């Protein structure tokens, strides 16, 4: 069975553009019209840029037209200060390419997610470490602002905690403070166990909170907010159906080594794979998701990497060697 068909039937949304592209390309065995891909390697990281350039590509990918930059860094899991600083600098570089901020522009950082659920707490954690400076621009003399751009931050929580749509809270703040751009941080779902807490995606198309775990909310993008929205996400969970499918696929591949087993493999109904997965997941309404047992440490480290990268990208006077970043590390 094709992966895209299985994912659709199980209600699995691929948050990461690079994964959606890989699935489509493997199934079609050809390039995708209206979609461009570029790859680059910097230090310990691989950078993949997926650019959706037409409505045709938008429909095929199931994502809005725009730029999606993925930084794959397996060493992100390693508790190594030097590597984390390198990743923060790389994030700042890629983010700056999408922001195009002027010296007087202001930024609203939004930490999406549920601070009571560790795999979904990335956004609030980043806000905890974010260098906010709007109050300095509002109340301090210019000479004390120290080359810092006006940055404010909010962690609006989730509908289940507040009773208010996240987009409504953010829209109210935007109307009050009039930021030039919004940077939204959220946890993502992945189809690859290897990518959990080892990849970063930056997109200039905004974000739909909860889409990766089948809990889609109102989108946070330029159309709904009235200002550009840059989304930063890190995969922290993988759908159990994806893991089950990969395990069955690997088992079936082994059938090719034996003529008798291969005949059994050829006699299988492709739809039976989906039915088996659905039956296993039925007690959880097919919405079971998995996360690493050390997710609390991974979220803490990743949130500091992102917050440090934000500080470098947003404040002109800050570099990777600035002493002001020490508290973020």
Automatic annotation (TrEMBL):
- What EC number(s) does this enzyme carry? 3.4.24.78
Q: Which GO terms describe its molecular function?
A: metalloendopeptidase activity
Alphabetized, the UniProt keywords read: Hydrolase, Protease, Zymogen
Enzyme class label = hydrolase
Known Pfam families for this protein? Peptidase_A25
User: Which residues comprise the propeptide?
Assistant: 1-15
Give the superkingdom in one word: Bacteria
Query: What does the entry report about post-translational modification of this chain?
Result: Autoproteolytically processed. The inactive tetrameric zymogen termed p46 autoprocesses to a smaller form termed p41, which is active only during spore germination.
Reactions catalysed, semicolon-separated, are: Endopeptidase action with P4 Glu or Asp, P1 preferably Glu > Asp, P1' hydrophobic and P2' Ala
Gene3D superfamilies, alphabetically? HybD-like
GO BP annotations of the record are: proteolysis; spore germination
InterPro entries associated with the record: Pept_HybD-like_dom_sf, Peptidase_A25
Q: Assembly state and interactors?
A: Homotetramer.
Please explain the role this protein plays, according to its UniProt record: Initiates the rapid degradation of small, acid-soluble proteins during spore germination.
What family is this? Belongs to the peptidase A25 family.
Q: What is this protein called?
A: Germination protease
Question: Quick one: which gene encodes this?
Answer: gpr
């Amino acid at each position: 069975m094709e992966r895209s068909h299985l994912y659709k039937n199980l209600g699995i949304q691929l948050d990461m553009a690079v994964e959606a592209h890989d699935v489509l390309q493997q199934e079609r065995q050809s390039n995708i019209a209206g979609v461009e891909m570029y790859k680059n390697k910097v230090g310990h990281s691989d950078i993949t840029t997926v650019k959706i350039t037409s409505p045709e590509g938008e429909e095929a990918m199931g994502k809005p037209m725009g730029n999606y930059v993925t930084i794959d860094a397996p060493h992100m899991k390693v508790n190594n200060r030097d590597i984390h600083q390198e990743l923060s600098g790389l994030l700042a570089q890629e983010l700056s390419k999408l922001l195009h901020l002027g010296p007087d522009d202001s930024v609203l950082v939004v930490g999406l997610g549920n601070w009571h659920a560790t795999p979904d707490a990335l956004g609030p954690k980043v806000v905890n470490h974010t260098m906010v400076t709007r109050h300095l621009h509002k109340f301090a003399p210019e000479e004390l602002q120290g080359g810092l751009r006006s940055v404010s931050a909010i962690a609006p929580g989730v509908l289940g905690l507040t009773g208010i749509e996240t987009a409504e809270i953010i829209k109210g703040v935007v109307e009050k403070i009039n930021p030039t751009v919004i940077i939204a941080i959220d946890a993502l779902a992945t189809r690859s166990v290897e990518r959990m807490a080892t990849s970063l995606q930056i997109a200039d198309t905004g974000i739909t909170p909860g889409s990766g775990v089948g809990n889609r909310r109102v989108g946070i993008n330029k159309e709904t907010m009235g200002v550009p929205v840059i989304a930063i996400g890190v995969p922290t969970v993988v759908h159990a159906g994806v893991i089950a499918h990969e395990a069955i696929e690997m088992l079936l591949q082994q059938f090719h080594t034996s003529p008798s087993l291969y005949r059994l493999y050829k006699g299988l109904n492709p739809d039976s794979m989906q039915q088996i997965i659905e039956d296993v997941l039925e007690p959880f309404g097919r919405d079971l998701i998995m996360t690493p047992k050390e997710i609390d440490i991974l979220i803490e480290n990743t949130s500091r990497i992102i917050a440090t990268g934000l500080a470098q990208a947003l404040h002109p006077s800050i570099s990777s060697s600035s002493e002001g970043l020490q508290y973020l590390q």
